[in-house]
């Protein structure tokens, strides 16, 4: 992350919760729109590269999985906040 991005992130994190949510939603919309401009073959290729990278990390033991129930409990806990 660039220094400019890091400073911007720190500034955004000081905003009230509802404003941070608005910023996050706008960023996600922007990313979604950017991905839609890519040709489907390139999107598929990028996913293949990412899946391969994740699988290789798992095989090397660099990525530790978690039980699905543990993940669901963590998600539910965050949603309740």
What low-confidence regions span 5 or more consecutive residues with pLDDT below 50? none
User: Would you count the extended β strands for me?
Assistant: 0
Main sheet summary? none
The outline comes out as extended
Strand portion: under 5%
Structural class: mainly alpha
How many individual domains?
Answer: 2
Counted by DSSP, the helix tally is: 4
Mean pLDDT: 89
Q: What is the alpha-carbon Rg in Å?
A: 17 Å
The percentage helix is over 70%
Elements, N to C (H/E): HHHH
Report how far apart the termini are.
28 Å
Give the arrangement of secondary structure elements.
Elements: H1 3-13, H2 17-36, H3 40-59, H4 68-80
How would you sum up this structure, described in words?
The chain is an all-alpha fold and 81 residues long. The protein has 2 domains: 1-37, no CATH class; 39-81, no CATH class. The chain has helices spanning 3-13, 17-36, 40-59, 68-80. The longest helix is centred in the first third of the chain and has 20 residues, at 17-36. It is extended and about 40 Å long.
List keywords for this structure.
79% helix; 81 residues; extended; mainly alpha; 4 helices
């Amino acid at each position: 992350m660039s220094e400019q991005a890091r400073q911007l992130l720190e500034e955004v994190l000081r905003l009230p919760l509802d404003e941070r949510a608005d910023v996050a939603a706008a960023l996600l919309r922007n990313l979604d729109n950017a991905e839609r401009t890519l040709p489907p073959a390139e999107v598929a290729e990028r996913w293949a590269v990412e899946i391969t990278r994740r699988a290789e990390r798992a095989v090397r033991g660099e990525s530790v999985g978690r039980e699905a129930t543990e993940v669901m409990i963590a998600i539910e806990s965050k949603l309740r906040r």
